[in-house]
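Let us work through a complete example step by step.
Step 1: write down the sequence.
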Amino acid sequence: MPSVDAARRRLRLSDSHISVLGLLVEEEQIPEDLFEDRSELRESGIIDADDKISADLYPLVATLMETRVIVHVEMSVSQSVTRSGAVIGDDLIFTHETWPGDAESEYVPAEPETLVWALARMVDLHRDFADESEGDEVIVSSMGAFDDVVAAMEAGRFEEPGAVAEATDAPVRLTEVLSQLNCMWRMTVAWKGSDAQTTPGSGLAESALAVWDCGIEGYWLRELPAEPVIDGQVDKSSELRVRRTTARELWQMITDLLPDGAQLAPGTGSARLLRPHARASTA
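Step 2: predict the structure and record it as tokens.
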């Protein structure tokens, strides 16, 4: 059920609830498949019987209706995916996180200076104790071999790494690393930039990175296929290249994903919110 914690300015809303709120702001008809979601919003006091939105939601709704920068965070764990992220408007930033199995996400306002920290927390970026000299290790294979190794893991057939490597025609080192896999995560930032920056067909500029969190084997950055990946761009023959990295380096990469004022389309007020991240701390 949707809910509001006014004292801490927190809200729990599903994508369907957000859709209802957007339609109400636009004064459009609510389709029948969203009637139940509207009823839940009424029961929780977020909208009244006349569909007037509670004042507690005005900051979030205004940010969602005039979003300038969107951050998507996908975490994949054991065949399940959770989605979190942030929405950045002209004046406010809201982060949102979901709990596995829940339909609702928790929306919370964030200060510009805390955005990188919040995004890092979403992917559980934590201090690792690996030797930083190991950060240059690279594994090269194919997406087909990777898929076969992951399929063996998900089917509960993950045996000794050497045996899996032989069965899937994958490098032994790849199977060793994946045997310690905690999760995979992808972070994508999209914004309206100049025509020269935008991805064809989307009208948006994007930056992204994909990472494996492999426990005692450390963090691995997927360099190929390079993010952002376009639908149909990758097949089983595509080259896979991952490089061992560190939490410190990933912190800076997350910082660098966010556009600065010069990258945003002219007249975008969000530039002043994002500017503090241009050189965030890597400590």
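Step 3: interpret the result. Residues 3-122 form one domain.
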